[in-house]
Amino acid sequence: MRTVGVEEELLLVDPETGEPQARSAAVLARAARDRADQQVFEKELHNQMLEFATHPQSGMDELAEEIVRIRGEAARHAGEIGCTVAALATSPLPVRPSVGMNRRYQWMAEQYGIATREQLVCGCHVHVSVESDEEGVAVVDRVRPWLSVLSALSANSPFWQGKETGYSSYRSRVWQRWPSAGPTELFGSAERYHRRVADMVASATILDEAMVYFDARLSARYPTVEIRVADVCLHADTAVLVAALVRALVETAAREWKAGVEPVDHSVSLLRLADWRAAKSGLTADLLHPATMRHAPAEAVVRALVDHVAEALADSGDLERVRTGCDGLLRHGNGAIVQRAVWEHTGSLREVVTACVRHTQS
Fold it and tell me: Which domain of life does the UniProt lineage start with (predicted)?
């Protein structure tokens, strides 16, 4: 069974006003006093953010329990200094992000200017174990068409700087400002993958390998493939659903590689269109079908993803969980739909944040 781990970025907000708070250093100091949390939480680019990482897990029940527990611990530590946490991929309310003072973040601020200063966005990254770099690159090549569906399922950022964006995942549009972000061409081998990464670092446009922000990449720290397309999910069970789908995509791609099945050679241009459509529509309108790159109803595209990985899901015992989770999202909506429903009902972005604080820990 491949292990899977999740990294989530949470927004620190004032529990009364809903405004983001630059208090990550204080929260991390609180967490450092707790032996169990010393290696769980990390500082992020902006002081209004808090990141955590789960342990590698083989079972989705265990992963779900850990995400819920750590979200609760994050809320507890934040509460001790008068803040709370919200699983929001962007801040609905206006904010002036403050960049952390370490050398890496200051280099980014100097190099990328306003793109760094405005990059207050929270994502969900999923790591899945692979046996080798060769297997990992074979996976990266074969999961490309399906990643936009994960973006649509996880979409949780319809507001930006106090305004309705017209997008379900505006976070993904902001993220694309990084020079190394987005879908990739086919690599074909680990040697070609590493050569491309080395060339990018040698260009001095990015600082190091960790700044290669491909949608799917080999992790620089772990023996994993890392999928980086999802918004941080409003509900913990949606994060687990995304993780289950990612593990199944990795397993399916690895099996295809071993069976000699060639990857689908969609161009980067078409993959970018699929990403844009997923960011715009989420689950509320048509998406681009990964097999054809033509418009299809969101429900049909989500069903196609589940069918594509059904064998791997069945083998891991996750098929019914995923089917139930997808049915629930299609019926009740993802985070973007929940946020808009609160906005339409109350007319208050503060109430949107307040509601999302509750959802984060439910």
Answer: Bacteria
